[in-house]
Design a protein that fits this description.
Layout lengths: L1 E8 L3 H9 L6 E5 L5 H9 L5 E3 L4 H11 L6 E8 L6 H18 L4 E5 L10 H4 L7 E3 L11 H6 L2 H10 L4 E5 L1 H5 L1 H7 L10 H9 L2 E8 L8 H12 L2 E6 L3 H16 L2
């Protein structure tokens, strides 16, 4: 029995649900219980996709996973660790600490770890090197050229080259891009990205958007429908910043590729 872990920012929870929903080879899906796990558990329930909560504060949970790891035969257990959205300054340092702590924790139980993170402003540029001593494979999201993606939008679009080609199509117009989860959490994301000091001062971000000359918001249709309020939240965002709305269609190729590569490497080693 192999154990594959995904450590992910909450912003990617829909992409993870898509992968799990369409993977018939998984023996079990476990979600570590924390302050950010409630929403993804609710969404799994809505599509009747079985999963179980697990608290690693419980010694018995550690013992269970260790026992499962050494069971003979085929099978793959997926363990999900969903972390909250973090922001600039001190919050960025806290994010790095949380991710590094999660890696150390999961490495004791996992045969492979996939991080649903990109460089995040170069915060994680040395991550793979920092954990080169781990016995289990560890990788961040990478584009078709093998390069670590810059951020969540870059990942959604398929990598840096796809992102740059899209920017060229806008012919100099400044376009702000929203995925379903970005839109669902846009107030929190605006603060996390340093456009405003806090949620109570969101009006500050209007000045930033105006100074940056944003004129349009791109609604990135990912093909996923787990977040029901995407349309209304994009309209709300556009109205708040006085932006026009344009729509983009994308697929899940990058996420499917990264997931498939690690998964197949683990299954092949059985």
């Amino acid at each position: 029995m192999k154990i594959m872990s995904i450590i992910s920012c909450k912003i990617f929870e829909d992409e993870i649900i898509h992968l799990v929903e369409h993977d018939e080879e998984l023996s079990d899906v476990l979600i570590l219980k924390n302050e950010s796990s409630g929403e993804i558990i609710r969404k799994f329930g809505e599509i009747c996709c079985p999963c179980r909560e697990l608290s690693l504060k419980n010694v018995e949970a550690f013992r269970f996973l260790k026992d499962e790891k050494y069971v003979d035969g085929e099978g793959l257990i997926l363990v999900l660790n969903i972390l909250d959205i973090a922001g600039m300054g001190k919050m960025r340092k806290q994010l790095k600490m949380k991710v590094y702590d999660a890696i150390l924790q999961m490495s004791f139980l996992s045969d492979g770890i996939l991080l649903f993170y990109g460089l995040c402003g170069n915060l994680f540029k040395d991550l793979e090197e920092d954990f080169r001593y781990l016995k289990c494979p560890l990788t961040l999201l990478r584009d078709p050229e093998g390069k670590i993606v810059d951020d969540c939008i870059c990942a959604a679009l398929g990598g840096k080259r796809a992102f740059m080609e899209l920017i060229k199509e806008f012919r100099g117009e400044r376009v702000f891009m929203l995925t379903p989860m970005w839109a669902a959490n846009w107030e929190k994301m605006v603060v996390a990205n340093g456009f405003a000091r806090d949620m109570e001062n969101l009006d500050e971000s209007k000045l930033v958007f105006r100074a940056a000359r944003y004129s349009r918001v791109a609604k990135i249709n990912t093909g996923l429908n787990y977040q029901q309020n995407f349309e209304s939240r994009v309209r709300e965002f556009a109205a708040f910043y006085d932006l026009e709305i344009t729509e983009l269609e994308i697929d899940q190729a990058l996420f499917e590729k990264c997931y498939r590569e690690l998964k197949h490497s683990l299954i092949a080693s059985v």
